[in-house]
Design goal:
The complex is a heterodimer of chains A (185) and B (755).
Chain A (H helix, E strand, L loop, with lengths): L25 H10 L18 H4 L11 H8 L9 H10 L6 H12 L9 H12 L5 H15 L9 H8 L5 H4 L5
Helix pairs in contact in A: 3-5, 5-8, 6-7
Chain B lengths: L12 H20 L7 H22 L5 H28 L3 H11 L1 H35 L22 H5 L28 H30 L10 H8 L8 H23 L7 H38 L7 H4 L1 H21 L6 H60 L20 H38 L15 E2 L2 H18 L5 H24 E2 L10 H26 L17 H9 L3 H10 L2 H47 L7 H9 L67
Parallel strand pairs in B: 1-2
Classes of the chains: A mainly alpha (185), B mainly alpha (755).
Keywords (chain A): Calcium, Cell membrane, Cell projection, Cytoplasm, Magnesium, Membrane, Metal-binding, Repeat
Subcellular location (chain A): Cell membrane; Cell projection, Cilium, Photoreceptor outer segment; Cell projection, Stereocilium; Cytoplasm
InterPro entries (chain A): CIBP, EF-hand-dom_pair, EF_hand_dom
């Protein structure tokens, strides 16, 4: 799906076969429709304004085991509550796909981990991330220690929260980021 | 506002230039649209706008000045782009086993899947080798060479014909298999064969060398690609907790059991780091630890030496057996060598792991030691095997001399008899059936046979291990659990985990054997392809059916290039024996494409002398002149030295830049915290200075918060709605407020020293 496909007949747009933008393909559309067949029409010619609610999207097999699935879907939704239109759906999978560029993934990773959406990853965001990752198995002191250490490691401007440039600087050196932050559909 | 081209007049050159620029800009936008983090809707509207604009004005630009040519060029460019994209799509669709690997990935995580990706890569490499070998050597011989039975080397000898089709003979690669395209001995030494005048001996030699060349190129290219992508393996210790926080979850996991395991391993990993962080260096009994480590290494060296000796002994015995009658030998004695080698490969690694318990290393370091030891084991075994084989080869070369003499003697006798019987001097050639001719021992085929047998037994052992060690074990655990006293699934045997490093090393060494043996047994490459293909299906089935995800997800950092590095080493080591034999040993006199030559590379000399124009021969003569070679070698050494120096210079520059960044970062931090400076030296210096107020304010350049070290550079636009923390005073307050002055000439504040 991450291939640059030409326009498929199910999405009738102008006949511009040379656009390198990720134009939706049949596979994505059928997956999207699977989530809510009664809601999503087969024919997208008129660009209907349909949104599939959060609860249905996080039930997808690719996402259902992911601790951050709610945040992922919220990040890509326009209304911020996780209701994805087809465009958002395509956006999501193309940003998370294997060939998506590193910068793009970094931006979206930052947005996902920023729980309170204030453009900073503060201690509270870190705490939430950690609790989701360990399912609450660590003691509160251990949680505090880990959050403090993370901020200490990555924070460059000394405001005890991570701005985007701090995050980007830290993530750019991580060896596992690209291979772990990817969803295959 | 873009200038509109009117039909009646055409736009001035200035307008044209501006128009062209805008069109270029829009084109660039279209190309990079994918990388922008915008909503789909916005992207699509912008795309439509840009495309409309480009289409409208691209044609217009061509107006009046070779418009047709311009339009044609544009159309061709578009078609080319489309063609390229279709080709890329096609290439992606052709990648095999994508679905299978995705399955494995979602159940077992990316580290197990990396083995299967490596396997697939190997398969691709071997396909190319197969193409080379079969296309340029085997197929020409089959199509254009002499058929089976026409000359002695292609016929089963009379005494063997009775048993040539027996199963036991065939599994030993004797009989019909020995005299087939599988082995070196089948190929004829005619200089040119068939209508196309195909030069088979030359092709054989060049393909043999070309296999190594191609493999080398591919391995190095993959290593370079991995090194680029892996991020500049920077300071590992710097971001331990942040990386664990943000990059430890594997988004590919889709299976609840794997997810549970992942949660557990992440928690354990955090706890480990926390303990590491809190721990003081306990002063354990260093002497005991050192002693134990030395002891462990001694034990392991002993076992390595022991295994090497065992192999040597067994190969020597097999030479003795080879001279005895085949029927007197048991199966065990016939296949002793392969059996022993496989056994060692199975038994020693767990033994090494057990001994390594003494050493008490950090697990990642222990893993590296383990891999190193297994590597040494395999290497030692392989090379001992090779040395023993060489003894055999030399023995065969000796016996060949005798047979040669015997053949010449027989021929002379026949000529003498004939001329004395018929009283003529004109002796017609001896009319002997190919099956009856006296044969030389043909050492190359013997060597090739050994490699083929080794590969086959390796395959058998691997498959058997999976069947028994994984499948049978899983069946027992699953079904016997109902009537067993303790819980088999949680307790002793339980289900197996997939041994990534063992399997990868096995794959690497298998490839090493193929590389070594391909020159003597062209069919070996085909055998390997079959093996890789069946391995892929068999192992993916076994993994999904009988294995459980790892409890402790362990990754040796940067392991991708580690395995590639091993492969490169193995490639190099398997190159050596082949090159040695080509250069020094003389080929058999009656089998193979080089029979009759002094040395194998004489074929190349012959071709240069006879087939190529005279001046190329001269070039080669000049090129091999020592007076030319020595300066060339010297030049290469100098180039190496220069590149090394340059690379060291870059590394030093890197370190300096990092230090600078570190200092800038600390200065920022402490400036915000209103300290004077962090650097101890500076602090001391400040204390020494008599009057603090004379300290000039820090230079403006250090301070610009717009570009933080390592900050996001081009192309990243994040909307900042909320500004940073409340702005701090620009300078540390170190002076009493001075008298007012007029408007400052430069905005940089009071001049230093003028207080």
């Amino acid at each position: 799906v991450c291939r640059e496909t030409t326009v498929e007949s199910s999405m009738k747009r102008d006949n511009k076969p040379n656009c390198p933008v990720l134009v939706p393909s049949v596979i994505l559309h059928s997956r999207y429709r699977e989530l809510a067949p009664h809601l999503v029409p087969l024919d997208y010619t008129n660009n209907p304004d349909i949104r599939v609610p959060l609860a249905l999207i996080v039930a997808m097999p690719e996402l259902k085991e992911n601790p951050f699935r709610d945040r992922i879907v919220e990040t890509f939704s326009e209304d911020g509550h996780g209701n994805l239109s087809f465009n958002d759906f395509v956006d999501m999978f193309s940003a998370l796909c294997e060939t998506s560029p590193r910068e793009l993934k970094t931006i979206y990773a930052f947005k996902i981990y920023d729980f309170n959406r204030d453009s900073f990853i503060c201690k509270e965001d870190l705490r939430k991330t950690l609790n989701k990752l360990t399912k609450g198995d660590l003691t509160p002191e251990e949680v505090t220690l880990v959050c403090d250490k993370s901020i200490e490691e990555a924070d460059l401007d000394g405001d005890s929260k991570l701005s985007f440039s701090d995050f980007e600087n830290m993530i750019s050196k991580a060896p596992d980021f690209l291979s772990n932050f990817h969803v295959r559909i | 506002a873009s200038p509109v081209a009117r039909d009646s007049s055409f736009p001035s050159s200035g307008e044209m230039a501006a128009l062209k620029e805008e069109v270029e800009e829009k084109k660039k936008l279209i190309a990079t649209l994918r990388n922008k983090p915008w909503r789909m809707k916005r992207r699509l509207t912008l795309l439509k706008e840009a495309q409309d604009f480009v289409e409208k004005f691209e044609g217009a630009l061509g107006k009046g000045k070779g418009r047709k040519l311009f339009a044609f060029k544009v159309m061709m460019a578009k078609k080319l782009i489309k063609l390229k994209r279709d080709f890329e799509n096609f290439k992606t669709a052709c990648i095999p086993w994508e679905g299978k690997i995705k399955d494995v990935e979602s159940h077992f995580g990316s580290s197990v899947a990396s083995y299967f990706i490596f396997l697939r890569w190997m398969y691709g490499l071997n396909m190319v080798l197969l193409g080379l070998m079969f296309g340029l050597v085997v197929v020409p011989e089959v199509l254009m060479g002499l058929p089976y039975g026409s000359i002695p080397r292609k016929t089963v000898p009379r005494e063997e014909q009775a048993t040539a089709m027996d199963y036991s003979t065939l599994t030993d690669f004797e009989g019909y298999f020995k005299y087939s395209i599988l082995f070196y001995g089948y190929y004829n030494n005619e200089r040119q064969i068939g209508l196309l005048k195909f030069r088979l001996p030359l092709s054989y030699l060049l393909v043999g060398v070309g296999i190594f060349g191609y493999s080398l190129m591919v391995v190095i290219r993959t290593m370079a690609r991995n090194a680029n992508e892996g991020g500049d393996g920077g300071d590992e210790g710097d971001f331990t907790f942040s990386w664990k926080m943000f990059t430890s979850w594997d988004y590919l996991i889709g299976n609840p059991e794997t997810a549970d395991n992942k949660y557990a391993s992440i928690t354990t990993s955090f706890k480990e780091s926390i303990v590491d962080e809190q721990m003081n260096q306990k002063d354990e009994n260093i002497h005991l630890r050192r002693f134990l480590r030395v002891l462990a290494n001694v034990l392991i060296l002993c076992s390595l030496g022991g295994s090497g000796y065992l192999i040597y002994y067994v190969v020597k015995r097999s030479q003795v057996f080879a001279n005895m009658n085949k029927d007197d030998l048991t199966w065990m004695e016939k296949n002793e060598v392969e059996f022993v080698m496989s056994l060692l490969g199975l038994v020693c690694p767990p033994l090494f792991e057990a001994i390594a318990e003494l050493e008490d290393y950090h697990p990642r370091i222990a893993l590296k030691w383990q891999l190193g030891r297994i590597f040494a084991l395999f290497l030692g075994n392989l090379y001992t095997f090779l040395f023993a084989l060489f003894d055999e080869v030399n023995a065969k070369l000796e016996s060949e001399k005798d047979i040669k003499n015997a053949t010449i003697l027989a021929l002379n006798e026949y000529a003498a008899n004939y001329s004395s019987y018929y009283n003529t001097t004109n002796v017609p050639p001896q009319n002997v059936h190919p099956a009856d001719v006296i044969r030389g021992p043909c050492w190359e085929t013997a060597v090739g046979k050994e490699f083929v047998k080794l590969t086959v037994s390796d395959i058998q052992v691997t498959y058997l291990t999976i069947l028994v060690g994984d499948f049978l074990r899983a069946v027992i655990v699953r079904f016997l659990n109902y009537c067993w006293c303790w819980d088999l699934e949680a307790g002793f045997p339980s289900y197996g985990e997939f041994d990534i490093s063992g399997n990868v090393l096995g794959l690497i060494f298998n490839q090493g054997m193929i590389w070594m043996g391909a020159f003597y047994a062209p069919g070996l490459v085909g055998l390997n392809i079959l093996r890789l293909l069946s391995s892929m299906y068999y192992q993916t089935w076994a993994v999904m059916c009988t294995n459980v995800p790892h409890e402790r997800v362990f990754k040796a950092s940067g392991s991708n290039n580690f395995y590639m590095g091993l492969l490169l080493l193995v490639l190099f080591l398997s190159l050596l024996p082949v090159v040695y034999t080509i250069m020094t040993l003389s080929p058999s006199f009656d089998c193979g494409p080089f029979s009759g030559q002094e040395k194998m590379y004489d074929v190349v000399m012959e071709t240069i002398d006879q087939d190529l124009p005279a001046f190329i021969g001269n070039i080669f003569v000049y090129a091999t002149n020592p007076g030319l070679i020595m300066p060339a070698v010297l030049l290469m050494v100098l180039a190496l030295y220069y590149l090394n120096a340059v690379s060291k210079g870059y590394q030093q520059a890197n370190i300096d830049l990092k230090k600078k960044m570190q200092m800038a970062r600390e200065e920022e931090k402490n400036r915000r915290n209103n300290k004077d400076s962090t650097n101890q030296v500076m602090k001391d210096l400040e204390d020494l200075l008599p009057n603090k107020s004379l300290i000039p304010p820090p230079a403006e350049e250090d301070r610009s918060p717009k570009v933080k070290p390592g900050a996001a550079g081009k192309g990243v636009h994040l909307q900042r709605d909320v500004s940073l923390a409340a702005p701090n005073p620009r300078d540390p307050v170190t002076r009493d407020p001075g008298p007012r002055r007029g408007p400052p000439e430069n905005a940089r504040g009071p001049q230093p020293g003028q207080d």
